[in-house]
Amino acid sequence: MTFDEFVKNFSTEEQCRNYLFKLRWPNGFECPNCAGKACWHIGDVLFECKSCGRQTSVIAGTIFQGTRKPLKSWFTAIWWVTTQKNGASAEGLKQVLGLKSYETAWSWLHKIRKAMVRSDRTKLSGKVEVDDFYVGGEEHGGSTGRGTGNKVLVIGAIELREGGKLGRIRLGVVPDAAKESLVGFVKENVASGSEIITDGWSSYASLPANNYTHTVYVQKRATTEEEKLPHVHLIISLLKRWLLGTHQGAASEKHMQSYLDEFVFRFNRRKSAKRGLLFYRLLEGAVATKPTTTRDLYSSKDDF
User: Fold this and answer.
1) For residue range 101-119, what is the model confidence (pLDDT) as tens digits?
2) Which pTM value belongs to this model?
3) Domain at 127-253: CATH architecture
4) Which of 78, 124, 262, 293 has CA atoms 20 to 30 A from the CA of 112?
5) CB 18 within 8 A of CB 2
6) Are 92 and 293 spatial neighbours (Cβ–Cβ below 8 Å)?
């Protein structure tokens, strides 16, 4: 889908609502309360279930719930996000949509980022390189264990495919470098039975007990973590450059996972030549993602 086709297909609110209807109810209306199939149309927006009387709309229970802005503005925002190869910033979205408020653009982006994580995505598998690392501001105080200070601890995993090709990735914020946190991330994101390649950090030692093959990378000539685990450290390097470049290093600890989710979404679809398909997938996620209020996203303007 070209931009001209996008404008043609989504220039009115009716077109946008009809598209969301097909995404949400591909087999026809289904009441979110009783799963009833029959409904009455109440005006242009609401549907009333004939079985239980529950009224709903195509945006209820989605990231669009409660919006006062036109759906075509949301569609434009999602189209723009999927076409930005280097990531989307709130300032950029503010300019594209002509929004008066930076805070509105910021909250929209975070809601869209939540839709980037599909609940049905398959876990990584095969050979998977894993390491934990810090991102964020300067450290304060002395170093203990895996690091300290005001940085955010992140763990990353990447599939290693035949021929040295890089597969999919996962990134997650973890509270510490203890076994429960690091192995917990692996269990959540990597299929059982996979080979996990890590450094010698003791927290990874229990991976075999959790039905993984564990390989500790050992090479006498490797003197740095980058040489020991080159693939995951390439991802780490790309992530840090992306945070500094697109977001000027302003990603807060509270919302770091949201930025990681966007980076994962973009990296795992880096070879996709069909922007229209990315737009479709992101809208699929938008209707399947529970609503988040702006109040949920931030507690003070410091978050911006």
Assistant:
1) 899 999 999 999 999 998 8
2) 0.86
3) 2-Layer Sandwich (3.30)
4) 124
5) no
6) no
